[in-house]
Design brief:
37% of the residues lie in helices and 4% in strands. The protein has three helices and two strands. The protein has helices at residues 5-14, 24-42, 73-78; strands spanning 83-84, 87-88. It has a two-stranded antiparallel ribbon with strand order 1-2. A hairpin with a 2-residue loop joins strand 1 and strand 2. The protein starts with a helix and ends in a 7-residue tail after the last strand.
Amino acid sequence: MLLTTEDVKKMAYLARLGIETNDLDSYTKDLSGMLDLMTRMNELDTEGVQPMAHPLDQTQRLRVDVVTEVNQREHFQVIAPQVEEGLYLVPKVIE
């Protein structure tokens, strides 16, 4: 997909990005290249390819699930504007 500088200007406006006029050609070329790559990747046959979270077979290192801090709930609730039965009360924001 080939983008024009007008397309990039419109996208920058919609995304509220400030792009210098002298950089528009570079952005246009780079974005067009990315969209072309996505188009080509979309045409690949991925039948039988299993989805994976990471390209390397790694496991996540996990820490021991133990409490490391002192419970200060009472201290923080004393200074809170409104508390009821151990819960913070906040103004309703969704009707």
